[in-house]
Design goal:
Elements: E1 4-13, E2 21-26, E3 47-50, H1 60-64, E4 70-73, E5 76-79, H2 89-93, E6 99-102, E7 104-106, H3 108-115, H4 119-125, E8 128-132, H5 140-152, E9 156-161, H6 167-173, E10 179-183, H7 189-196, H8 201-213, E11 217-224, H9 232-242, E12 249-254, H10 260-265, H11 280-292, E13 297-299
Helix pairs in contact: 9-11
Bound molecules: iron/sulfur cluster (SF4) (2 copies).
Length: 301
């Protein structure tokens, strides 16, 4: 059976689909959005995190590191990520929990055992299980088997997707998926490429195919990012693109900076240039534009 690489399972989630849900966060994403609040979701391998504020400066990690990736300079423990080979030996000797991995390989049984602890809550709240990430469809085989197992227990299923996966992968999961939370971040392919790393051609083509070929609910999610898509032109174009299509709802998700410390824990720079949140009155205007298209629109989930 396939193994999955996940970085978290969040129980009692109420923002990733209807009702009370468990959200399984897959690790690895084909996009690298510069404002991403979950940078640990991007790489498709386990990674070392250093919560330096917890470091006791005991220097035990320096002693065990086989590649000399850790040094004590300027009265701080620093990790040279170019030398680190992710052996994780340093974690075993860290007395303070400052060093830890993000991402673990799990079996289907392990995930099913965890999420089915709350089966009763799903049934009583019309909730279920959401596959999120990262991009769950990057681990197509594991995602498909997990969906099949959930459906064999009549558990409601949602896929939260960036939309970038081969259409054949979408086709394979359709019979076992009740809804898609589908991100539409930008319609301009060049702007999409410059700020997420890839063009949006496949994403828009997949959405079109889903709307034509799937009976699953489609919920559109738009992260509203200052300097990227927070303009009237984008929302007018979005309304025109979706008009007349069977969209269950559109959620405008506000930008936040809560994920920025995690970039430091992973030894990376926070890549987004603007930390300004979109003003509330602009969000209301964008909502009105989409509502004129006949859609149910929410600010936030
Ligand atoms: S994970 Fe291994 S190579 Fe990387 S810093 Fe720790 S001990 Fe060194
Ligand atoms: S082993 Fe942990 S607590 Fe000790 S110096 Fe290294 S990171 Fe800090």
């Amino acid at each position: 059976m396939p193994q999955g690489l996940i970085f978290s399972i969040q129980r009692f989630s109420i923002q990733d689909g209807p009702g009370i849900r468990s959200t399984v966060f897959f690790k690895g994403c084909p996009l690298s959005c510069k404002w991403c609040s979950n940078p640990e979701s991007q790489q498709n391998e386990p990674e070392l995190m250093h919560r330096f504020q917890n470091c006791q400066k005991c220097r035990a990690c320096i002693e065990v590191c086989p590649t000399n990736a850790i040094a004590y300079t300027d009265q701080q423990v620093k990790i040279d990520r170019k030398l680190c080979d992710n052996c994780f030996d340093c974690i075993d000797v860290c007395c303070s929990g400052a060093l830890e991995t993000t991402g673990q390989y799990v079996s289907l049984d392990e995930v099913i055992d965890e999420v089915c602890r709350d089966e009763l809550y799903y049934r009583n709240s019309e909730g279920g299980v959401t596959l999120s990430g990262g991009e769950p469809l990057m681990q197509a085989e594991f995602a498909l088997e997990l969906l099949k197992r959930l459906k064999s227990r009549s558990i409601d299923t949602t896929i939260d997707t960036c939309g970038h996966a081969p259409w054949s992968v979408f086709e394979s999961v359709l019979p076992f998926t009740d809804r898609f939370l589908f991100d539409l971040k930008q319609l301009d392919p060049n702007l999409h490429r410059s700020e997420t790393g890839i063009s949006n051609d496949l994403i828009i083509a997949n959405l079109d195919q889903l709307l034509k070929n799937s009976s699953a609910e489609i919920w559109i999610r738009v992260p509203v990012i200052s300097g990227f898509n927070d303009n009237q032109d984008y929302f007018t174009r979005l309304k025109d693109l979706l008009k007349g299509r069977k969209i269950h709802k559109i959620s405008l998700l506000t930008y936040h900076k809560w994920g920025t410390p995690k970039y430091q824990y992973l030894g990376r720079e926070y890549p987004w240039h603007s930390e300004v949140e979109c003003p509330a009155d602009s969000l209301e205007k964008f909502k009105s534009t989409l509502t004129e298209g006949g859609f149910d629109v929410t600010i936030g989930f």
